[in-house]
Amino acid sequence: MLLELALALILVKIMDEIFIRKNQPPVIGEILVGLFFSLLAFFLPPQDVMVNYGFSLNLDMKHPAFEFFADMGIIFLLFLSGMETNLQDFKRSGKGAMFVGAFGVLITFLLGFTFALTMLGFGFTQAMVFGTIFTATSVGVTVRTMMDMHILNTDVGNTILAAAVADDIFGIILVTVVLGQGEFLELIVGISVFFVVLYLLARYGVIEKVMNSTDHFIHTPYGLVGITVGIMLLFAFFAQVSHIATITGAFFAGLLIGQSAQERKVVNPLRAIAYSIFIPVFFVKVGTMVDFQLLVGDFNPLLLLALPIVFVGKIIGCGLGAKISGMSIRDSLRVGVGMTPEMEVALVIASLAYASGIFPPAIGSAVIATTIIYVIASSLSTPVLLKKMYARD
């Protein structure tokens, strides 16, 4: 377990540096580390013997401690996503962002669901999960590209930024419904109770008051950071007992804490903890979920058809939402292309579906592999397409 964690943390930081220098998303390098570990398990024998002493050649990536680090990475990732969600930007964009986010999620989900149900022969629940995986947008690549082109502070740029917030919220709600556990009635009751409590906490500023009191009375080093992590885990636990995904609780905990005055005091220490340890281990874990022993001979090439379907679906859905909100056809198309990249949340949903046993191991591994391919392809193609679309301007 110690060797696995040591190698994972050292290698991902080396890969992060390489990918940042190449102006590429570092998360891709972290996934490649996981794929490298998976390849080692595929090619190396499980054990070797030297001088009558047997020792293992494979890394134990399924060790409970490694799983714990990866699970914490998911929770921290969605928690920080909630903290960094700017509700003021969302409110300013208003109608346009809502339309872009809603249509992007809806069209992409319907296309992915229909494709999985009819072409891949998935069951109803499996098809719903497959469609959900590709709904969430990650606009980090788009934002970086538009910043380099000095066009981020435009109608298109502002709409993409705010629509990404709406997209995340719609996507989290969809994940909550699709990955919810238990009977349907229990799930409905759980979701209802969760959001009622969430509304009351937000309405009366309970979390903000807790953060203010903590900041005022507790002066031990990193005391505020520790209690913030505790609140995050409490929300994740509350979501779990409500029969919904723990990441939903973490996301909304981050959303509430992000509106408090103490957000600026805790966000940097939390980022340091999350991005130095837990989040990289999660993405390494995602890479290791691609089991080459299961894929050999069992990978369905029809899965690759999902890539253009999802890509076009994002452009159509988000572009349609932008057009309905009053943007020109050209700018609507630009918004659609800018909303095509997917990254963290798509991988989180795919890994949760794999871990929950919704897909059999071979199919689950193939779905993870397909998701990784889309993440890499969309991250590389979006900057090129945006630059060509703005070339005349």
What would you say this structure looks like, in words?
- The chain is an all-alpha fold.
- It has a domain at 67-279 and 303-357: Up-down Bundle (Na+/H+ antiporter like fold), CATH 1.20.1530.
- The protein contains 18 helices and two strands.
- It has helices spanning 2-21, 26-43, 64-83, 87-93, 95-118, 124-133, 140-148, 155-178, 184-203, 206-217, 223-241, 246-257, 263-288, 292-295, 306-324, 329-338, 344-355, 361-389; strands spanning 47-50, 53-56.
- A two-stranded antiparallel sheet has the order 1-2.
- Helix 11 (223-241) crosses helix 13 (263-288).
- The longest helix has 29 residues, at 361-389.
- The model has no long low-confidence stretch (mean pLDDT 83).
Please provide a brief summary of the model.
It is built from 18 helices and two strands.
Features:
393 residues, mainly alpha, 2 strands
Averaged pLDDT: 83
Largest sheet: 2 strands, antiparallel
Looking at the overall shape, the CATH architecture of the domain at 67-279 and 303-357 is Up-down Bundle
Class computed from helices, strands and strand pairing: mainly alpha
Order of helices and strands: HHEEHHHHHHHHHHHHHHHH
How much helix, percentage-wise, in residues?
over 70%
**Roughly what fraction of the amino acids lie in strands?**
under 5%
Low-confidence parts lasting 5 or more residues at pLDDT below 50?
Answer: none
Give the arrangement of secondary structure elements:
Elements: H1 2-21, H2 26-43, E1 47-50, E2 53-56, H3 64-83, H4 87-93, H5 95-118, H6 124-133, H7 140-148, H8 155-178, H9 184-203, H10 206-217, H11 223-241, H12 246-257, H13 263-288, H14 292-295, H15 306-324, H16 329-338, H17 344-355, H18 361-389
Antiparallel strand pairs: 1-2
Helix pairs in contact: 1-2, 1-13, 2-13, 3-12, 3-13, 4-8, 5-6, 5-8, 5-15, 6-8, 6-17, 7-18, 8-16, 11-12, 11-13, 15-16, 17-18
